[in-house]
């Protein structure tokens, strides 16, 4: 009896270079065997739409005009791919699946900006790290990020360590940094289930540009956005500058900030404040299209007014760990914040995570956030990578 095509691949693939793999697939086909393949499906999974308007711990959800629920994903947003022979998916090394994911990313991602790979044999972060290696994408680090996350592996991070019930506002990743990531990848290791919430909404940024008030777009274009960080010392908070900067050395942190052209101040309680202004719009590095590319609402101090750990603090929104204003320091009006949030959520789509799902996004074309988990959910494990290419 002939071994199956995936078995042939498994026995030889460790020694194969990526360039040699395409030769093996025609050989498997010549033997009449099913070659491993990722195929697109238009059979979209059912979605129990998450509540948005009036949702607790969701910044801005109490404003008039906030969308009632999150849209279900539509065909091609994201385009969904799965192994053609799911029962054999385990027989192919994850590096090989990663190479196939890369081929589809190179071919498809520029069309809609987001792809979902489902049914891959990923159960652990080590499995995902192997798949990521197989893509050949160049990882970018998270130094200078302003959220809470943990480095789990060389190129793998926890997606965010905020309290599970909190909803993270829509944003594009590290869009305030020089050389922002080109792609963002998420992988589901532990799903909160179909009734647990915790979706990763994906946002059509072309739709956002279409629906945004042109006068606000113009104000952001001409006045830029100032990002402010007020980050505690590790002796006072798990959310601290040492983990954000990946360093315990003040001089090293100062060199980093100065090198980026940021202003900074060490405060009496050993916390670090720093700030800088940057563009809130960006041209896509490939297509040249202009995108709303910022973290204007997600990093605005107003988010902390509904954050479980900060909502009882009475300080001004500019004193919370993150804040945004116009580049000249003037605050965004409540109307502007409400408008941006409404437009972003109106253009966002959700699906229920399943273990092994891999989501790949073009970081300019597609924004993302995180729905809070529903009461009773104890675990949601989504891991992340960001890339330079
Ligand atoms: Fe993010």
Automatic annotation (TrEMBL):
Residues 89-380 form the TauD/TfdA-like domain. Keywords: Oxidoreductase. Gene3D superfamilies: Clavaminate synthase-like. One of its GO terms (molecular function) is oxidoreductase activity. InterPro entries: AlphaKG_dependent_hydroxylases, TauD-like_sf, TauD/TfdA-like. It comes from Branchiostoma floridae. The gene is LOC118408045. This is Dapdiamide synthesis protein DdaC-like isoform X1. It comes from the Eukaryota. The lineage of its organism: Eukaryota, Metazoa, Chordata, Cephalochordata, Leptocardii. The keyword Oxidoreductase applies.
